[in-house]
Amino acid sequence: MHEIPVAIGLGSNLTDRMRNLNFAIDRLRDHLHPLTVSPVFETLPELYTDQPPFLNACCIGYTVLTPRQLLSALQDAERIAGRTRSGPRFGPRELDLDLLLFGDQVIETPQLVVPHPRLRERAFVVVPLAEIAPAWEIPASRGDPSETVQEVLSRLDTTGVSLFAE
Q1: 34 near 61, Cβ under 8 Å?
Q2: pLDDT per residue over 63-96, tens digit each?
Q3: Strand partners, 101
Q4: Residue 98 annotated as catalytic
Q5: Residue 93 catalytic?
Q6: What are the tens digits of pLDDT across the range 96-126?
Q7: Can you list the positions of beta strands (E) in the chain?
Q8: What's the pTM?
Q9: Annotated catalytic residue: which of 17, 27, 83, 120?
Q10: Among residues 16, 27, 85, 96, which one is catalytic?
Q11: CA-wise closest residue to 97 among 81, 120, 121
Q12: In degrees rounded to 5, what are phi and psi of residue 86?
């Protein structure tokens, strides 16, 4: 089977945030080899601001799963961690797992868009991703040019994203 490099964004701002991220990392070990995990960052919420701060991280690894299979595994982990989709969009959640990059593929289906459609705007994702994959080339998509994670980071305001110290 052909292994594809993938990048996953992790976030949590309800209950035990670090425990939620560690749960997700343990689950991802079943699907990504080897698994490389970024440092954890604490970030202020965006868009829907009436909620606690998030812990965010990214991980990268190789998978033999299809994009749809990996998305299903991510959604299963979110559900097991207690995530419901009944609250406000961009609202608080126990666990949020986003498929950011799937090799150099561009995927646009009703269920999945890769590269993640807001990847290039989100410092809380790009900062941890740049820690472990600064040279990863984000493919051109949705009118955006191909560029590295580091190039995206150089344009972003990282105010509100700080290294988390337990």
Answers
A1: yes
A2: 999 999 999 999 999 998 876 766 667 678 899 9
A3: 7
A4: yes
A5: yes
A6: 999 999 999 999 999 999 999 999 999 999 9
A7: 4-12, 33-37, 41-43, 54-63, 96-102, 107-108, 113-114, 137-138, 147-148, 161-163
A8: 0.94
A9: 83
A10: 96
A11: 81
A12: -95, -15
